[in-house]
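Morning!

This is the sequence you dropped in the shared folder:
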Amino acid sequence: VSLQGKKEYLIRLRNPWGKTEWKGKWSDSSQEWEKIDADEKNKLGLSEKNEGEFWMSIGDVMKHFDLLDLCHQDKEAFISSLEDKGDKEKKDWNTASYIDSWKRDISSGGSDRKTESYWSNPQFLLDLEDEKDETPVIISLMEIMEKNRNRMDIFIGFDVHRIKKNAPQPLSDDNFSDESLRFECRAEETEWRENTKYLTLKPGKYVIIPFTQVKDKESRFLLRVFSQTKVLSSSVDQPPCISNDDLEPDNTLKTYADDTEWMDAFELYEFIKPLWTENENFPPLTLETARCFLNFIDEDRLGVIGTEEAEKIKQLLSRWHAEFQSRVKDGSNKADVKGLKRMYSVLGVDIGRKVIEAVTTRYADKDNKISFDDFVQSAAKLLNSYSIVEIDEQGEALQKKEAPRDSTTPSRRRWSAE
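The structure's back. Tokens below.
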């Protein structure tokens, strides 16, 4: 307001209890208001009722209050400068919402950008390449409350990185480079449940990475992106794929098995049993594992495979065991799930964070470790799942035509353990 030719900055406050107001300078009945024009007082909505609302000078607010929270009731009220100059009404806002989670050893990589684990945090793409001008964007990260947990032990924040067109997605410690990515800004970690930041972004592509201050903290979260234009945004994860044309592991299908003897799951189990009965370092497998392998190979659903294929399976299991043991560190014959992605990659299976989380939920123990038997089962099931789908250019799964179920001769898949 203007007081005797000088600008006086005031803040309007409200006591949430509805009564008891400020009695000092600029209170409802203070002498300062007598020097203000009546039209200006009406414009400000000055009332002498004891309803809990009152005005204070900014100096008194800073003197009497230590903490100030800004609560915007809706998106349009967030910032007045976003008003469309051609209209009195503000523009509509578009909202994109994502519910995701931080998982220990998988997707809770902490806040330190210099560490490998940081890039395991969930990632979200924001595409502003088609925009001609700078775009106002509000990014809001909110922790989803869980029962029986003290949420004050988690500090949350997020980073925004600008990436080039050809930058790999998702970003990882293996493919990250200063040439493909530029750090834009950070919403610093806060103990509050929600962390919101207003940005004005230039045309281009951006990656939003939510994080917890300390890695391996677990929680679900809601990420919302508000914009005045319909920008493209999406969750970034690696689409599943197998390393060769037939969607089979590691070029293992090279030679046809030309045999006429067949074995079912029980016979296959007995056939591979010497792997652990004759080698004390090889952990025992279960009948379910034999069933998983047979289901993967038995494309015609006849429940049998050839003896030569079974021999290839035995050799393959030996190679898989060697790779698995290289990840075992404490003599428990179990490997940390944080190494699952690399282990699957060695087998020729490239999968994303969501699949790793699903495998961990299904197979890992309370310490987030997985046994060799469970690892083999999960690998066989993943290979079987991806062998009946194709992945299109957008990373979408398309159902392939199944083999006839009334075939009289089992199809022979080509196997090699090398």
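Headline: The first strand starts at residue 2 and ends at 3.

More detail when I'm at my desk.
O.
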